[in-house]
């Protein structure tokens, strides 16, 4: 099983990617989004995408969420996130919370 983590991306490229991952039986895809009510969040309707609410602007809470999700899936050096795709990280401050995942030996970060 390939564990995929997608951050943001409820529209355009992210939505298209999630629709494709939804149909891939080899992937278990986890999607974290801020759940803004003014967005058309059709991606929450995809049956094989595991949706979690999270706001990266709350860095401490966001880091706790990433740790919780990784621990729940037993992510470690042997059982890794196959790919992490981040549609919302634009500054070093945005990327910093993801450093806890890099210590887990991830294969790809986009």
User: What is the class in the CATH system?
Assistant: Alpha Beta
* Topology order in helix (H) and strand (E) letters: EHEEHEHHE
Unreliable sequence segments = none
Give the overall pLDDT as a whole number.
Answer: 83
First-last Cα distance: 19 Å
Find the CATH topology.
Rossmann fold
Fraction of residues in H or I helices: 25-40%
Label the CATH architecture.
Answer: 3-Layer(aba) Sandwich
The count of domains is 1
Strand percentage: 15-25%
Number of strands: 5
Describe this structure in a few short sentences.
This protein is an alpha/beta fold and 110 residues long. It has helices spanning 12-22, 59-72, 92-95, 99-102, and strands spanning 2-7, 27-33, 49-53, 81-86, 108-109.
What can you see in these coordinates?
The longest helix has 14 residues, at 59-72. The chain has helices at residues 12-22, 59-72, 92-95, 99-102; strands spanning 2-7, 27-33, 49-53, 81-86, 108-109. It has 4 helices and 5 strands, in the order E-H-E-E-H-E-H-H-E. It has a single domain (2-109), classed as NAD(P)-binding Rossmann-like Domain (Rossmann fold, 3-Layer(aba) Sandwich). With 110 residues, it is an alpha/beta fold. The mean pLDDT is 83. Helix content is 30%, strand content 24%. The chain has a 5-stranded parallel sheet with strand order 3-2-1-4-5, with helices on one face.
